[in-house]
Write a structure and sequence with these properties.
This protein is mainly α. 76% of the residues lie in helices and 4% in strands. It is built from 9 helices and 4 strands; from the N terminus they run αααααββαββααα. The strands form 2 sheets. The protein has a two-stranded antiparallel sheet with strand order 1-2. The chain has a two-stranded antiparallel ribbon with strand order 3-4. Helix 7 packs antiparallel against helix 8 (199-227). The longest helix has 29 residues, at 199-227. It is globular. It starts with a helix and ends with a helix.
Amino acid sequence: MRELFRRLITGAIYVVLLLSAIFLSSDAFDFLFMVFGLACLYEYKRMVRLKGYYIFIAYLALWWAYIYLIQDRALIVILMFLTVTVNLALLVYLFSKKEKNFTTIQKFVIGLFYLGGGCIFLTMIPYKEDSFAKFLIMGIFVLIWVNDSFAYLVGKSVGRTKLYPAVSPKKTIEGALGGFLFALIAAYFLAAYETNISRMQWMILAAIIVITGSLGDLIESKFKRAAGVKDSGAVLPGHGGMLDRLDSLVFAAPFAYLTLNIFSYVS
């Protein structure tokens, strides 16, 4: 009971902080995710035993350049290509049965684009034609929360078939399907509040976010299993580390950003 109370209090503080940043200003949101990105990189760096602080400098330089300086579409496409390529390589790592020992350079590149690129694209999502789409980014967080919550509840209630026991023994196929279904329902209703994209587009976006977010969660679980740790950190009492909270989002972010840009192009 005490552990549940800690989880609820920590979760409530996290949600209030996040929503306050979104509705306060775009700069507050940008700054918050710059800090979250640093926290995720710190936890990742400890898990994979990456020495030095060069990755923080590279992340801050990349973040500052793409959030405040770079407007060229070609350069954004290059970052997208690098981030998605690293994410696809991580999917190969996720489903590989062979043990993988990453080199220092590989650890650096993975951290910079998997986490750094993910946080950058997450920060870029709400911006469209110099406006800050508060309800769009809030809706993306809602989709992740709904999926995580109902995957847990459905899995706890009726889950029988293990999803990927070699990496995450508690997750079930029934839970994953439950989270997916309720995320689609949430997307249906979110379309009433954010009308820049259609209801069908909201539901497509939900499907992309849930699928890629669930894969991101499994990838972080594999990193933790390789490191022999239960949580990525202890900054959030009852929830583990910051990366434990954001693993789905940072992996899903570039795919969500790409999907939204395809919607704009098609429209």
